[in-house]
Each structure stands twice: as structure tokens, then as C-alpha cells.
Amino acid sequence: MIDLSVNLCGKRLQNPLVLASGILGTDADILKRVADFKIGAVTSKSCGLLPRKGHENPTVVAWEHGLINGVGLTNPGVEKEVEELLKLRKLLKNSSCKIIASFFAGSIDEFPKVAQKLAKAKPDFFEVNISCPNTMDDCGTPFACKTDNTYKITKIVKEVARQFKIPLIIKLSPNVTNIVNIGKAASEAGADAITAINTVLGMIIDLESARPIMTNKIAGLSGPAIKPISLRCVYQLAEQLKIPIIGLGGVTSGSDAIEMIMAGATAVGIGSATYYRGIEAFDLITQEMQAWLEKHNIKSLDEIRGKAHAN
Amino acid sequence: MQTSLPKAVTVNQVIVENFKTKSFVCNEKLDAQPGQFIMVWLPGVSEKPLSITDNDPLTFTVSEIGKFTKAINSTVKPGDKIWYRGPLGNGVFKVVPGKKVLVSGGCGCVPIHFLAKNIDKENCKIVIGAKTEKELLFIDRFKDFKTIIMTDDGSKGEKGFTTDALQKIIKTEKITCVYGCGPEIMLKKIADLCDLHQVKYQLSLEAFMKCGIGVCGSCSKNGQLVCRDGPVFSKWP
């Protein structure tokens, strides 16, 4: 067995795979079930200051080349989320799997408030979701679409993160003209890592009813269709940034995960793959990575990380 | 690649089942197994998980409990279109040999009906329960079976819970499997009774759902996904 562990912001992930936020992250029990696949980390579903119902169904469907979701940041509020994460911490007391606590806020000033409360759950990492594409009606354009907003949010959340010694990950949107500029703003403001990417804006229409299927009409694409987009974003970010990247978007197999690492990712997010391959996707992808590395006589992921840049 | 997109289907017939419940018979067959469910979409209103009453032709039954169910029952007429995704769910009712008891509480008789159509009548008893006579469902549909009716207030059949009737049967007869669908409190009681008497069980659980396809986590019950691992469980989650 090849050692697949990676170092993310000074913390050891036993495996490069990370459960993406918004997938199966609703409660401690289901997060524990995912963590039991011995992956690097699980990310909870983003929480906000107050409970939020999200959009009416349909909110998630599988189309021909991926999923589309417009859940709309459904969450029980940060207070309840802290309870769930503390329960998860107990459930994972004999596990090496790390906990990434994801959160969002409705305004720039609200971000540190949520962070301050969420810190009570003692997560291993914070992931700031500044890039949800499904709440424009009430939250406006995602903060991650502007460099100045990204900079400001990262800067004020970093103060909280520093106080509690929690590494800070900023999750970026692909729905921007230049993702590298946004990534640089996050990095300059003190981000310890980047997750790239959130879902890609899209729409699907039902012919018989002649209306968009998602209640929110416009929603976020994920799954196989977006893998070339996420690879491109990770590649561009890795070229310019010194901080590590969690590469996320469309990875469903071991070879997809290796591609992401070759693009420069330190860790690899897994989300929609659980639809295509079940919750066992984590085991299958790990086994496929092992097999590929063995076949190519590669001893460590460091040997291939960012290799696509050299060739 | 595997998809889960809403598909339009025409409703051929609407059957009034009781004062708040209607069944919608569609114009096509669905290749589904007892216990599976569909996500029914009424465009502009919502999309919710509903049990399958019958698969040939596809029939589903709606009891009015909120905005969505009221909208379906008050607007969908024969000739109208309705949309659905499915069949969904990997945990399905599996017919086993031997004596069986099917227990239905309230609207639980919907998947129980689909199961009963696929089961040998001779080796099977059905316990149907509801709060009052008014809420009872599908009595006529089960007339070829040995049925026991239970109501909380005794307005029809015996007064008491379905689990009271089940307990009597389990204590006096050799039962190989109990099948159940209904309120969670009833299902938990069935599981406990079965565990106590070492009888196998298959129970169809209900949950709030968003995706219906095992990715959002909304329907997690102690880490088990009702939509994908269930909705039928042979071990209490």
C-alpha cells in the first residue's frame, strides 16, 4: 500500500480525499459514516448565523452529464451546527479523519460573527463559502465574484481563525472572469488554503412544462460535466498561488483524482461521485488511485503533484 | 450516464379514497419494485416523495397534509399531466417464504398495497390501522386478504393500535416476516416486538427529502439515507 497521506496547512490528512461541502454533510451520523472510509477530511454543509429553509423542491436532479443543485443553503443555524459538530468530534475520537466546518454569511460583517460561534465546535479547518450560486435573490451576487469582497471577508475571518488557531480555507467560484485574481486576493488577505471550485452556474428546462426544473431556475452544475472546468481553475490557481488547493469538481474516479493532483491540488474534493458510485465511492476512488500509482511505480503523491505544469 | 430527471405522465383516472385522500392512476406502466417511491413534481408548487400504490399502471395516492398535497388533490384532474422522478430507493420489500403479517398505519397502506399485490394471499394477514373510521384507507382493496382493522377510538374494527393486534399474532402464530409502513412510532414498536420474538421485519420509513438520490443528506436517520439505503429497512437504522 502506498502512503497517500498529504499535508494540508501543517495538518496530516491520511488520504487526499475530502468530502465536499453540501454533500451528505447534514448531520454527525452521516458524516461519521463517510469518515469511516478513512478519507482525509469531511466537510459539513455550510451553516449561517440563523436557520434557513432553502428553496422549495426540485432542488437536486441528475441530468445527462452531471448533477444540478439549487438547495439554497438549507441549514439549522450555527448554534445547532456546533452541537452536531461536537457530536461528530466525539464519534471521530478514534479516527484520523479531519473535520472541515463550512459556513456562509449574508453580509461581510456577519462572517466573523459566524466564525466566532462556529469555533466552539473546534473544527480542524474553517471553509468559508463565499461562492454559493443559489442565493442571489436574497444574498446578492456571491462575494467570491469580486476581489475586494473576497479580500475583506478573508481578512476579517482570518482574525477569528488566528485567535482559535484554525486554518482558513476560502472556497472560490468558477463563475468569474479571472479566478486567479480572486485566489490572489484570498491568499494576500491570509487564507491558508483554497477550495476550487464551487458549482458552475447553469439551467435545465423541462420541455413538457416549458419551465426551468430547478425552483431557483438558475442553479449549480457539478459532476463529470464540470471536471475540465475545475481542472483548468486548479491549474491556473496552482501556477500563481503558494497556498495549497483542495481541487473539487467532477472527480468520480481514481484517475480523475490523479488528474486533479497533477493540476496542482494538494487534496481532492469528492461530491457528486457519491450519486454515481454510492457512498462507497470513497473506497473505490482510493483503490483506483493506489492501483494507478503502483502500476506507475510512484511512491508518493508528491512525485506527481503539479506535474502537468512541467510538461 | 444515469439520470434522475422529472418525466411527464398523463393522469387517466382520479379515485377518491377518503375525505382527504385521492389516488391518481397514470397512463403508463412503471418498472418498479414494492417499497420503491417516486418524487412527484407539480411545476410551480413543489416536488415531494410519494409511495407507489401500483406500478401497472403507475398509481400514487395523496393524503392532504400540506400545501403540496392540497395542490395536487385540488388541481390534478383526469387528462392532466404530472411529473415524477423514479422509481427511487434501493431498500425494497422482498417477499420471503412462510407466514407474513403486513402492518399499515394511516397512509402506510400505500406501499403495503403494492407489496400485497405481489404476495401469496394464503400465507398473509394484513393489519390496517387509523385514528378513526374516517381516516381508514384501502379497506376494499384488501378485501381478498385476511384483514384486521384497528382504530384508536374503536369507530371501526377493534379499538387499539395495530401493534396490539400484531403482538397477539406474533405470540400465537409462527410468523417469518413482518412488513410495515406507517408512523415512525408504530414502526419502532414493530421493530422492538419483532426483535423480542426473533421475527424478521421489513419496514418502510418516511423522511423529508430534497434530492431523493442519496446526495443531499436531508433524509439521514442515524446515518442511513432513507432515499437511497431505504426506504425499506430490515434493521432499524
Account of the protein in words:
The complex is a heterodimer of chains A (311) and B (237). Chain A has 311 residues and is of the alpha/beta class. Chain A has one domain (6-54, 70-200, 222-310): TIM Barrel, CATH 3.20.20. Chain A is built from 11 helices and 16 strands. In chain A, helix 1 (28-35) links the parallel strand 3 and strand 4. Chain A is globular. By secondary structure, chain B is α/β, with parallel strands linked by helices. Chain B folds into 2 domains: 7-88, Elongation Factor Tu (Ef-tu), domain 3 (Beta Barrel), CATH 2.40.30.10; 100-204, Rossmann fold (3-Layer(aba) Sandwich). Chain B has 4 helices and 15 strands. Chain B has helices at residues 67-75, 109-116, 162-172, 184-196; strands at 7-18, 21-26, 37-42, 46-55, 58-63, 81-88, 100-105, 124-130, 146-151, 158-159, 177-181, 200-204, 220-221, 224-225, 232-233. A 7-stranded mixed sheet of chain B has the order 10-9-8-7-11-12-15, sandwiched between helices. Chain B has a 6-stranded antiparallel beta barrel with strand order 1-2-5-4-3-6. Chain B has a two-stranded antiparallel ribbon with strand order 13-14. The longest helix of chain B is centred in the C-terminal third of the chain and has 13 residues, at 184-196. Chain B is globular and about 50 Å long. Classes of the chains: A alpha/beta (311), B alpha/beta (237).
Strand content of chain A: 15-25%
Q: Report how far apart the termini of chain B are.
A: 30 Å
Cα-atom radius of gyration of chain B? 17 Å
Radius of gyration of chain A: 18 Å
The gross shape of chain A turns out to be: globular
What would you give as the CATH superfamily of the largest domain in chain B?
Nucleotide-binding domain of ferredoxin-NADP reductase (FNR) module
CATH topology of chain A: TIM Barrel
Tally of extended strands of chain A?
16
For the terminal residues of chain A, how far apart are their CA atoms?
A: 28 Å
Number of helices of chain A: 11
